[in-house]
Amino acid sequence: MAAALGTTVILASACASTTESNIGRTATEQLLLARAADKAVEGLSLPLPTASAIFVDETYFQAENSRYAISAIRAALSDAGYRLTRNREDADAVFELRTGALALEQMRRVVGIPEMRIPINENLNVVSLPELSVYSNRDRAGVAEFSGFLYEAKTGAPLGAVLPMIGQYRIRSHKLFMIVTWGQQQAQPGRRNPGSSWTEF
Q: Tell me, what's the pLDDT at 201?
């Protein structure tokens, strides 16, 4: 009888754990930034004739996930009909990029008592109190803003500027009585047509 009771207690207290890679951004956060960058460059065009050779200068484009954003800008230029060159000497114009924002925003609304950390002594030790809410929602958004200007590759003469390109990708999730959840919990990856892995320009 005691052995059976002990086995039952062990089984009831069993738990499972998973191991996750420790990276700077979660997959959902990376997708929020990527989708925001994609939206920012939709319809990008330059004050130049199509088929002009463009050198994209990314020297001053500094942001987390910047490599994806730069590739999205290059893809948008190619889609618009411009020729991309990796050598400044072969270009008709230089497109110097800069970033205003490429980051995440988050907002949480709670009907009830939010999670709190309360100091308990003069040493500033704290105790965490869990959330006690009837309803809460969470907004997560990737925000991207890029801009740049153009100048002649050979002379440096100004050709024009590109106004800030702004993109945002937002997801919202809801929770009722801290148990029932609905809404978009994570950002969805990009979609493609079944059977086709590329698109012809």
A: 44
